[in-house]
Structures are given as C-alpha cells and as structure tokens.
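Page 37, continued from 36.
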C-alpha cells in the first residue's frame, strides 16, 4: 500500500515513516507534506505547486499534523480532484465545525475518512470495556471519572482520546461530559481531568467510584511507535471501506480483534 504523510516532519510523522520503511513488502512511502514543504521519494523542499499531482500516487493519506495543518489539508483537498481514496486523520483538537467539513468533503469527493483521535488498538478495547463496565456499575450509583496525563508540550486539553472515551460512556449511559468542574459534582456527570507535565506519552485512567469499592481501568502508552503501528493498521482498515466519514466507534469488535491479530 502506498502512503502519503501530512505532518511528515513532526514526531509522529517521522515515526510512521520509520514504520513504513521497516515493512517494505507491505508499505511504500510515496511522500509527505509539512510546513517545511513537500517530501517526495527522498527529495525534500519540493514546491507545494506539485502537491496535487504527487499526492495522487498514494492509496491512503495519513494526517498527523496540527489543527492549522489539518485545516490547510482540508482546504487543499476541496479544490483538487486527484486525491487518494482513503484518509486517516490522527490530528487532535479539531473543532466540531472542521469535523463537519470533513464529513461533507468525504461525501462530495467520494472517499473514506476515518477520524482517529488515538491510534492505539488498546484504546479501542478500553472504549468497549469501559462502556460494558459503565452499564453494570452506573445503575449501582458508581460515579465515573476520567483522568488523562500527557507530556508538557501537548496543546489540547482534555485530549481527544479522553473526549472519545467520555463521549462513548455518556452516550451509552445517558449522561453528560463535564470538564473543568467547579462546585459540587452532579449525579449525571462523567468528569474529565487533564494533567500536563514531563514526557508522558499518554495515560488514560477511568475511575468507577462506589461507596464501598472502586474499579480503575488504565491504558498507558510506553512508546510513540505504538501509535505509529496502530495508525498503519487503521489506515489499512479505512482503505477497505466504502466512501464516507467514519469514527473509531464504527469499527466493530470483530474487526478490532482482526486488527490486533495482524499487529
């Protein structure tokens, strides 16, 4: 499969490129784009004027840029026709308005778009497990809180992953998500708290707090390569889908198990 990385010069872009080069029989990196310009077959500094023609060689576009970089990509794809049939968006912190624009372009341009605020397959499992625990424990008056920790340089807070987990629980249990709480906790809230500091890759902990016992489910990322490997598997998944806009929760448990076995 041929891939193009948007946000190529960033830490995640470089890690994904490294994973692609490590699997030459499965993947080829045709090129990448970033604020520094275009990268194409080991040549850097290529003019953005060639973006449409070069991008058209790829089977899948993987975006791990910033909010601004994602917006630039959206604007570029709106005006060109020579684009891949699939796009994985790993950029986080996108506004609801921008996400709606991606939904529109997926339909208009007839290609598959997967919004993935976290590309760890363990997070997909945590999403499923957390809802199951919530359905059992919430009727027993357990309070649910999510605590997430990331490195000091992360811009968005709470993380896209924390929102993904919280929204999944809220929709399942008929509750509302509360960030930056002030005052007394309400019964129908799922609280989300963010910690920033050090060099933490990413940690998400869901607390189920009862009067007599407490359950915690934790996912801790130990390496950036975890997300890069997951990104390639998710890129493969979206490449196989019909045109449309997809979210992580659209991946069925059977498909999730298949992805994990491939890993």
């Amino acid at each position: 499969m041929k891939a193009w990385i948007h946000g190529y010069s960033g830490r995640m872009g470089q890690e994904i490129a490294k994973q692609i080069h490590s699997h030459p029989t499965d993947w080829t990196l045709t090129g990448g784009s970033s604020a520094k310009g275009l990268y194409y077959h080991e040549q850097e500094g290529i003019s953005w004027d060639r973006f449409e023609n070069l991008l058209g060689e790829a089977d899948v576009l993987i975006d791990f840029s910033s909010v601004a970089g994602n917006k630039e990509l959206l604007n570029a794809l709106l005006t060109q026709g020579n684009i891949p049939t699939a796009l994985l968006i790993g950029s986080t912190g996108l506004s609801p308005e921008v996400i709606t624009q991606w939904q529109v372009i997926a339909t208009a341009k007839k290609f598959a778009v997967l919004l993935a605020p976290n590309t760890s397959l363990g997070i997909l499992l945590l999403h499923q497990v957390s809802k199951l625990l919530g359905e059992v424990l919430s009727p027993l008056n357990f309070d649910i809180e999510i605590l997430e920790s990331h490195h000091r340089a992360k811009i968005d807070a709470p993380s896209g992953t924390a929102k993904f987990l919280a929204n999944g629980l809220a929709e399942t249990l008929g509750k509302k998500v509360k960030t930056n709480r002030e005052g007394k906790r309400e019964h129908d809230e799922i609280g989300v708290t963010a910690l920033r500091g050090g060099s933490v890759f990413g940690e998400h902990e869901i607390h189920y707090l009862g009067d007599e016992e407490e359950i915690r489910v934790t996912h801790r990322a130990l390496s950036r390569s975890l997300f890069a490997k997951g990104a390639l598997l998710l890129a493969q998944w979206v490449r196989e889908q019909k045109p449309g806009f997809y979210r992580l929760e659209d991946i069925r448990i059977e498909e999730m198990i298949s992805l994990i076995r491939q890993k």
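Helices lie at 11-21, 51-55, 67-78, 96-109, 121-137, 160-173, 225-239, 253-262. Flag for discussion at group meeting. The longest strand covers residues 143-150.
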